[in-house]
Amino acid sequence: MIFNRLLGLFSNDLAIDLGTATTLVYVKGEGIVCSEPSAVAVHRDSRGAKKVLAVGLEAKRMIGRTPGNIVAIRPIKDGVIADFEVTEAMLRYFIRKAHKHRTLVRPRIIICVPWGCTEVERRAVRESAQSAGAREVYLIEEPLAAAIGAGLPITEPSGNMIVDIGGGTTEVAVISLGGIVKSHSVRVAGDKMDEAILQYVKRKYNLLIGDMTAEYIKVTIGNAFPGFEDSVEVKGLDMVSGVPKALTLHADEVREALSETVRVIVDAVKGVFEETPPELAGDIYDRGIVLAGGGSLLRSLDLLLREETGLPVSVAEDPLSCVVLGSGKALDELDLLRQVALR
C-alpha cells in the first residue's frame, strides 16, 4: 500500500473512455487532456503483418482516402474490442500522450466498459491496458460513469435514470445505491444514425456518400422531432452516371432517415421502465431522465422522449465528456471507486 502511494508521486493516474467513435483521457489533477477519434491507420505488407502509421485525428482523416495497402480502422466495435493488437497500439498512444512528463512509473488506469459486456471482453480490455503500460487497471461500467459525470446522486437510496448514447451502443440504466438496478443495452447509437443517413441518400437519390459526410449531415441538420427546418448541400458519387454530384438534403428527410434508429432507443428506454421497481420509478417520475453521450446531441431527441414517456428529459451539461468525467471523479474519490469498480 505504501509502495503504491510512493509510485503515485511519480505517476499520473488516468481515466479512459474507450469509445467506439472517440477516446477521451482524463489525468488526475489536470482534467481532460485528450479527446481524439478511436481510429488507427495500419499498413499491411504482403505477408499480412501490420504496422501502425497514425492514431486518432490523423488516422480518422485517412478513412476512405487510403491506398489499398493502408487501412484506417476503428478497433472498438459496439463498445468492445474488435482488434486486440490495434487497440493495444491505440491505448499505448493515448497513455503516452497523457503521461508524457512522467515516464518513471506506469500509471494506474480506470477504463469504462459497456454494461453487460462478457468476462472475456473485460479481460481483453484489462490485458490491452496492461500491455500498453498500465500498472493497475480498474473497470467501471459506462452507465455508472456517465451518471457520476452528469452529477446524479448515484450513491443515495433513490432512483436515477441515465441514457448514454455513444457511437456504438446506447445504454439505459436505473441506478440506486451505487449500483445498476435495471439496465438495457442496444447496439444502436451514433454510428447507426450515420449508416441510416448514408443508406437513405443512396436509396432515394442514387448517391453514394462516405461515413464522414453522413456524420456531417447528422450533426448539421439531424433531428428527431418535427419543428426544425434547414437544409445542407451534399456531395457524393452518382450511382447512375458514375460522376460526382451535389444535391440539397432537407431536415425533414434526415428525420425520416433516422426514425427507425431513434425508435429503437425510445423502445429501450420504455423497456427499462417496465422492469423498474415501483419505488424507484416514482423517484424517476420526480427527477426525470438524463441523456448523455454524443448521440444525445441529436436535435429534439429530448423532446421526442418527453413526448413518448411523459417525463422530464434533460441533456447533461457536458454530454460528450460525462463518462470520462465520472471515471475521473472515481479516481479522485477512492471510496467511490471501490463502490463502482467491477470486481
Characterise the protein shown here:
The chain contains twelve helices and 18 strands. It has 343 residues and is α+β, with helices and mostly antiparallel strands. The protein folds into four domains: 2-37 and 76-145 and 322-340, Nucleotidyltransferase, domain 5 (2-Layer Sandwich); 39-73, no CATH class; 150-188 and 259-315, 2-Layer Sandwich (Nucleotidyltransferase, domain 5), CATH 3.30.420.40; 193-257, ATPase, substrate binding domain, subdomain 4 (Actin, Chain A, domain 4). Strand 1 (14-18) and strand 2 form a beta hairpin. Helix 6 (190-205) crosses helix 7. Mean pLDDT is 89; it is low at 1-10.
List the topology elements.
Layout: H1 2-10, E1 14-18, E2 22-27, E3 31-37, E4 40-44, E5 50-55, H2 57-60, E6 70-73, E7 76-77, E8 80-81, H3 84-98, E9 108-113, H4 119-131, E10 136-141, H5 142-149, E11 160-165, E12 170-176, E13 179-186, H6 190-205, E14 207-208, H7 211-221, E15 231-238, E16 244-250, H8 251-275, H9 278-287, E17 289-292, H10 301-309, E18 313-315, H11 322-332, H12 334-340
Parallel strand pairs: 1-9, 9-10, 11-17, 17-18
Antiparallel strand pairs: 1-2, 2-3, 4-5, 4-6, 7-8, 11-12, 12-13, 14-15, 15-16
